[in-house]
Specification:
The structure holds two protein chains of two kinds. Chain A is of the alpha+beta class. Chain A contains eight helices and 24 strands. Classes of the chains: A alpha+beta, B alpha/beta.
């Protein structure tokens, strides 16, 4: 029953068989139902195809099915006896970097597909780079279509070597390689008989057993979502602070700091529907009570007293631009960080990073959709943040424009 | 440091966070209460989220006039027992005109009695956010929907132009007249819902349990016969052990053959099911897809 949850991202280039692989995993692990499979088969036959096209199982929107492309991130679910899985399936097209960033933001692992015939192409490097940028610490490289290269070990070895050289330029993360044929199912759920030279686990085995390094951050970070003052006479004195523990743990009796004000107080209780508890851990949603009736509202951050970050109004960040309207240095946005909302301006574009080569280009005055850049951000009011590399919850922010659209995804650098 | 959260604990924590975000970001939210199992879970999560206070928003039930009697009885008893504020809204004009799936076709009937009534109610009470129990695993167009899903001032969804949704930073900014649909159970599957109902001992409508019922086999579904007038020409009702995997309107909700009489039986059935629960909903199988209906404002 206690199977745990693994959220992973799948990324691949056009036609490298990603939809086929996901369809294969869903069908083999029973994440797709018979009637859904037959609907996908019917759709394929209606357009003149034969049998099931797994991509029709995953491509949810009409336009996608008609054009045979994946437009948007889709979320898929399946469970095995050992784990429940949430797949964020991001399209591979070059112009859809924003979708991959979106899908990666909630993932703990990235499954990057490579076509064995073409090896490590520009897009493979981009996918690995973005996964790394988003703080994903586990990458599985599935070398697909091995059936089309006669299951040759030399082809597989060369791809592993090329990818390892690329990863060597990044911070160390856990990278694993698996040769597969998604079409025939070899080494996906079952081993098949075509890889006598490969002794490692199957893809499914790996997904089921991999130990996820969730977060190194152990510091208490509790962004206040709401203040709970029940309108009941018997609870007239109750004043609870509701939120989800972003990282670390909190214990009744502990001293805490309230940011950005810096005031200190003590935790007097942790209320939950199931009864009061003595301590709570990330990622629990709880309601806390504090010793003094201090002024706390949505957007404040409750932390320990020894490891509290200093609230700042200017910081460097990596920014992925998601809007079709370009961003100009000096433009104003609404910045959302944890539960806090502040006015902000991107005061300077330091340089743009080419996700294919990681080359830096400076002297830019604007960012276009899918650009990734190092920028300086200034906020009107202080925010209490951590570097994204240390804490994905308190190091991430989004920018919202006047049309209320989410236009940028940011990672606090320092 | 606790590391071994169960998948249900992880899902619960996420859903409670989402429900609280709605209250924090909107002026006048509502929870769409369909009386079904997903709604039951949603209401339970809302109670947990705001404990020790009450649920700070009303529940809205869109009554098509074709709901099972057991559903309405359950609705009234359950909401009273937990002290929730219940609003029932019906498209009275369409009901007076005798809207029926046989007369109008399923798509138009749903359009009037569900989508029409829902948009009418959202406008009447000026709700700016509606929390619903839809899950991404239900149907392929739902797999692409955001947790915070924006609706224009006509209540319509534009799937090609959705806001990117990153981390748990849900963007609830809207302009006057627009609204948000919010789906806290996005990441739950049918099995998760049943396992959670069992674990938390959440009350559900008895129709989910198997019993002997009068049914006819119509199209691909066992349709319950509540009233003799439900029988169409050439149909002979038979008595079968059946239960409902999802609950909708009587004429359009199929039952499945089942002997599951306890919550354990149901969880077991969900774990080995080979066909999706939406298969029993006639609305999903017309020429008009779920995506089309959602664009127009359907939940």
């Amino acid at each position: 029953m206690s199977v745990g949850l693994l959220r992973f991202l799948t990324a691949g280039s056009v036609d490298d068989g990603k939809s086929t692989l996901i369809g294969r995993m869903l069908v083999d692990a029973r994440g797709a139902f018979e009637d859904q499979v037959s609907a996908a088969t019917r759709d394929n036959e209606r357009r003149g195809g034969k049998g099931i096209d797994f991509s029709l199982l995953t491509d949810g929107l009409k336009a996608e099915r008609e054009q045979g492309i994946t437009i948007d991130v889709a979320y898929r679910y399946f469970s095995t006896e050992r784990r429940k899985f949430i797949i964020a399936d991001a399209p591979g097209h070059e112009q859809y970097t924003r979708n991959m960033v979106t899908g990666a933001s909630t993932a703990d692992l990235a499954l990057v597909l490579v076509d064995a015939r073409y090896g490590v192409v520009t897009q493979s490097r981009r996918h690995a780079f973005i996964a790394h940028l988003l703080g994903i610490r586990h990458i599985i490289v599935a070398v697909n279509k091995m059936d089309l290269v006669d299951y040759k070990q030399s082809v597989y070895d060369k791809i592993c070597k090329d990818f390892r050289e690329f990863f060597a330029q990044l911070d160390p993360i856990d990278v694993r390689f698996i040769p597969i044929s998604a079409l025939l199912g070899d080494m996906v759920v079952t081993r098949g008989e075509n890889f006598p030279w490969y002794e490692g686990p199957t893809l499914m085995d790996t997904l089921e057993t991999i130990e996820i390094d969730t977060q190194s951050a152990s510091e208490l970070r509790f962004p206040v979502q709401l203040v709970n003052r029940p309108p009941m006479p018997e609870l007239a004195d109750f004043r609870g602070y509701m939120g989800r523990i972003a990282s670390g743990r909190v214990t009744v009796g502990q001293d805490v700091a309230i940011l950005p004000s810096g005031r200190r107080t003590k935790v007097t209780g942790i209320a939950t529907f199931g009864g009061d508890i003595a301590s709570a851990f990330a990622p629990q949603s709880v309601t806390m009570t504090l010793a003094e009736d201090v002024d706390i509202s949505r957007g404040d951050l409750i932390t320990g007293i020894d490891d509290a970050p200093s609230p700042i109004k200017e910081f460097e960040a990596t920014l992925c631009w998601m809007s079709q309207h370009p961003m100009r240095a000096g433009a104003k946005y609404l910045l959302r960080h944890t539960t806090r909302k502040v006015k902000a301006v991107v005061s300077k574009i330091e340089y743009r990073i080419d996700p294919n080569t990681m080359a830096k280009e400076s002297g830019l005055t604007e960012l276009k959709q899918n650009d990734i850049a190092r920028v300086t951000v200034k906020t009107l009011l202080p925010i209490a943040c951590d570097p994204y590399r240390k804490n994905r919850e308190t190091g991430a922010f989004i920018l919202i424009d006047e049309a209320n659209d989410t236009v940028g995804a940011g990672f606090v650098e320092a | 440091m606790k590391e071994n959260w169960t998948h249900l604990e992880a899902l619960e924590a996420e859903s409670i966070y989402i429900i609280r975000e709605v209250v924090a970001q909107f002026r006048n939210p509502v929870l769409l209460y369909s009386i079904g199992k997903d709604s039951s879970v949603l209401v339970h999560l809302a109670r947990k989220a705001f404990y020790p206070g009450p649920i700070p928003f009303p529940l809205l039930h869109i009554d098509t006039g074709y709901k099972f009697r057991e559903m309405l009885t359950f609705r009234d008893e359950f909401t009273k027992a937990i002290g929730a504020r219940l609003i029932v809204h019906r498209n009275e004009q369409a009901i007076a005109e005798g809207a029926h799936p046989l007369k109008l076709g399923v798509a138009r009937c749903c359009g009037k009695l569900k989508t029409g009534a829902l948009l009418e109610a959202l406008e009447k009470y000026s709700f700016d956010a509606a929390i619903g129990g839809a899950r991404r695993d239900e149907e392929r167009s739902r797999a692409k929907e955001r947790v915070f899903s924006h609706r224009d001032s006509f209540g319509q969804w534009d799937p090609r132009n959705q806001r990117p949704e990153l981390w748990n930073l849900y963007n609830g900014e809207i302009h006057e007249g627009e609204s948000m649909r919010v789906f806290p159970l996005s990441n739950w599957t049918e099995t998760d819902v049943w396992q959670y109902i069992r674990e938390q001992n959440i009350p559900i409508v008895p129709l989910y349990y198997a019993q002997q019922r009068q049914v006819v086999f119509r199209g691909t579904n066992w349709i319950p016969i509540i009233d003799p007038s439900d029988i169409r020409e050439g149909e002979t009702p038979v008595t079968e052990w059946v239960r409902f995997r999802t609950l909708g309107c009587m004429p359009c909700t199929g039952a499945v053959k089942s002997g599951a009489q306890t919550i354990d039986d149901i969880v077991e059935e969900a774990l080995i099911a080979t066909r999706s629960e939406r298969e029993t909903r006639v609305i999903d199988h017309g020429a008009n897809t779920m995506e089309d209906k959602k664009r127009e404002g359907y939940f």
